[in-house]
Amino acid sequence: MVVQNNLDLGDPRKGILLEPFIHQVGGHMSMMKYDDSTVCKPLVSQEQWFYESLPSAMKRFTPQYKGIISVHLKKDSMGNLSLIACPQTDRRSSLDHASKECSMTIWQKLNQANSSNGDQAFVKWNHDQLTNTIKDSCQEKAILQADLQHHRDVSSLMEKDNGNQTEKNSYNPWGLHCHKEHLNRMSSKYNENKPHQFLLLENVVSKYKCPCILDLKMGTRQHGDDASEEKKARQIKKCEQSTSASLGVRICGMQVYQADTDQYFCKDKYYGRKLSPEGFRQAIYQFLHNGNRFRTDLIEPILSQLKALLSIIKKQSTYRFYSSSLLINYEGMEKATPSDNHSQGHSQRNSYPTSHGNSHPKVDVRMIDFAHTTYKGSQYNQTSYDGPDHGYIFGLENLIKIIQSIPAGE
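Below the sequence we write its predicted structure tokens.
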């Protein structure tokens, strides 16, 4: 097990109960929250290799890599499953300590919701309880016990002319969906003594109060060199039937904070696969709209970072970022202006005072998901490529053009 020295692991005798990362908007593998500044995901050796040999020029546009950690699947006396991270040694006592007094897990609550409300139940996170409910029994290393409230009507569903549904939630439900599926897979081959290795990565949205996140699958090809013929055919079909082929980019998920309702507008990967090029452009517009206005102040900071990333990608010879994603993140809670001091309602509650100095909105662009990335020198390199990843470049260039065109043709 390797963990960077600057990672605060707290008391080494205690296990850490991992919870779903509530701001996961895309992907199929469950992303877990380790602490406020760190998330973790199941380790794929090819991705670990990439992070450990990452070109210095790309570090600005990738999450900080913090090492790996062992995780155990723990079943309590009621049969509920939890994922327990064991930072250092004495793992058996760590598991018992972390799970003994936290038996009401998310797994149990999700199952209760499904049995009592049916499969159509929506999940609503109570944010105050999520961040403030710290179990004293877990002593110095806080274990967050999430409080889930299940309601059929927690989402406001709005039908549009094209039949697509838009969802508004207190939090994006996709992360919980991934977590449940992940536990289902793990429970089918349950082994309490088998450690699972997870990657520790920077939580790139930890600095945001109301993170708005767009997950984009980049490139014209999504299958890795090691894909089976069956998987290769599936991935090629997905690309051909989506904007991956026409634009080199497609939406995998997003959440947008709506200042007018104090909720998140959420979309998943199935929505993104159905979009036409014009539908993709409209979705980008929606991502930059807070329910009250279009955020023109975000255009230049996003374009600046995308252009800088494009310049770097063009110089990465032999790299192929198959099936990787690009995150565009920004702060949904706008800074208050002097006139806001006299405003009423949501506009006053959903803002925070601006500080003297840099008034630019908080915007961040990051590449993620490198399980199928290949390059010369990688021990997982099966095919040699020359030059940069032109499929990725094609997608980035189209994304830049689309964002540039939106303010003029709203």
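The chain has a mean pLDDT of 76.
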